[in-house]
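Minutes, project check-in
Item: structure for the 876-residue chain
Input as provided by the requester:
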Amino acid sequence: MLREVRKIILLIILLIPFIIYSQNNSRTENRIYKTEKVKTIAPRIDGLVNEPAWDIVEWQGDFTQYSPFEGKKPSQKTEFKILYDDNNLYVALRAFDSEPDKIEKRLSRKDNFEGDWVAICIDSYDDDRTGFNFYLTAAGVKADVLNTNDGNTDNTWDPVWYGKVSSDDEGWVAEMRIPFTQLRFAKTEQHVWGLEVMRRLFRENEVSMWQLIPRDASGWVSHWGTLEGISDINPKKEVEIIPYIMGSLERRDPEQGNPYRTGTEWGYNAGVDGKIAVTNDLTLNFTVNPDFGQVEADPSEVNLSAFESFFREKRPFFIEGNNIFSFSVTGMNSSTDLFYSRRLGRRPHYNPQVGDDEYTDSPEFTRILGAFKLSGKTNNGWSIGVMESITNREFARIDSAGNERKEVVEPLTNFFNIRLQKELNNGNTLVGGMVTATNRFINDNYLKFLPDAAYTAGFDLLHYWNNRNYYIMVKTAFSDVQGDSVAITDLQLAPARYYQRPDMTHRTVDSSLRVLTGNGGTIGFGKSGGGHWRYGITGWWMSPGMEINDQGYMSRADAIVQSGWIEYQINEPFSVFRMMNFEFGEYSWSDFSGRLLNIGGDLSTYAEFINNWSYNTGVSWSGNDVNRSQLRGGPSVVYGPTWNTWLSVNSDDRKKVMFSLGGSLLEGTVETNYDRSIWCSVAYRPVRSMVISIEPEYSNNYKSYYYVNSIKQDGNTTYLVANLHRNIFSADVRLELALTPDLSIQYWGQPFIFSADYSNFADVVDAGNLNIKDQFYIYPDSEISYNKDDFIYIVDQPGQESFTFDDPDFTVFEFRSNFVIRWEYIPGSTAYIVWSQGRDGNAPTGNFAFMDHVSNLAAVDPSNVFLVKLSYRLSM
């Protein structure tokens, strides 16, 4: 590892002269607003702007269109005022409207800023990278967004601030009070902050700005104007404590003889979340015994691949500020990351072995005993993120004829990570790194399949020049996993590596190893702004021994990938279009032996029409695919080229009825492979405060020579494959009703049906043969038979020992739903009432009989969970 670190340090040193000679001033000539301090009674936040305090500053306006017609005069005039005192920033915005009866006042849940809105954006760090954005809609709904890295948006940021609106015959008015406790700034006598003010005129789908940002600009915060006049204020070190209490009731169908499934279970919980301003720049967020019962369930899926599914984070503690802890190894925005927060609180690793007359009660999730994260940005350009979490030692209860025993299913585990970045060269250069550490306290021999410790370290450099229109990126990461030889052997045999493959020539399984190390990284260059053209080229690698899944997420190691793309954008309206772009991309995959695994490319276009409809269409091609994981540790098989095309059309989302319709078609050129998918979305807004939507999707796909099973006999392995025909149907149903800006009702439900029908069973006899079909021997009817009473197949070939395997056909039908009433009864304090329901069923057939499956799903006994949760914010 030291040798690899030296290489990276040498590369960074070689880049220093390039960085020095590409200096630039990213901020162009900008506008300035000068504020004044309130010396009398502070404004009351009621949306009226009639207090004397507002008279000490003048209205400022002269906005410019950002879209659809960049640089033109807006359809309606907008003006604003800004005041401050020792503790707050006060903002008044006047949105004039010559047709006030057409102002769109859409009630929605907090952070869903719909209809007409105004926003003020503050860069209180004055670093041209970090922006605190506060939105207020004409219906009085608040939204807040955090900008990071001069363009990335974080919608999970949740500050406490105050805003009200009013309407009159000249338009509407928004009034805000933003406590300085919710901003971050240095301790200095005179403050100069970045400032942007925006307005959306809904009926014209028009966005106007006080400081115009060109649509072809790279970056966002760096183009804002300037707020001057703030002096003699001190950063506020707020302490925020939010305790919660929760009660629950679970009702499900009882199971005869199972003492752990009696039909009704009561539960309760309590914990606390908190936020402490440690210094002017750093904030400590913590949670003790958190509960996420109000969080929407993951969508249903059936994963037949060798790899783990990736699910997005939904838990508030881990969502807020998660961009700070991101370190994407294989690019800027890939899912291969050193930190994947779903590892914390995951389902326990171990499933107890139980007898026929035994029952088990195992926790669905590992309890998080406590977690904290220290994050912020210092005045000298350091971005800091530190997270520490401890998850519980979990037990499963096992009942055997009334005698109960316990087995550990997850050891006590500590997760630690730290992310640092330093800004240089006026924010145009970022140098940083990340370290993660996972330590398990394993006391049971049967848990030795888990690593004792796993460490990763990453270093990154990102440099912009020419007004941040061009960039160069360098990243590297290293992993070190330690444990019993059983754990390290399991990692060598895992899907990310499959060292046991017969065609794996550059690695072998070493069952004596107790440490597995690896490395990966990315080098990229591109143009991200300025003019019509964008492009980029990237190369990344993951060595065979790279392993980050104890705290991060990755699927494949042993990869060297090159990719490139070029895009042409037209942002100015022309003919019947508001905007249009075209993009071409290409890629190639190889492994560390130099074997080419896959090449491909795509061509796509997206356009928006003047009537606010849009479309997206494209075509892609993939060459021969050397699939190293299909046989689950067997030799690599080769699949032929495929073509894929897609088209989606979206209507104007401002209308009462909105819809989108799309489809895709994938076809193989050698095997009989296809994937035909169609989806649509229909949303109806009967009143301004309610939206009802349904999003059904159906996929019918056929894959030749898909893995079924591995049959071991007399030291030989038969890799059984078959043609797989899958039918998949799902439909997301949602209802959102906002009774007030602070009280909302949400419902989400999803029926899901998946059927898998296997046919034409075959044996892999010559894996890797580029004559695709010659890799497989399809059993003729004379050599395979089916016993329908026992649901098994019998294979009897002349001169060989016969074998049997279970019928792999199956159907799964499920239903998931959440009904949530959310009331923010005072800012920062929330009450939830939640009803969650789940239905699960299956059938030993691959026939897709839609109505029969729907009937079966309706007949399944549901599991219902009712939950009440109350939190209260204490601020000191």
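Outcome recorded: Residues 606 and 616 are 4 Å apart (CA to CA).
No further action items on this chain.
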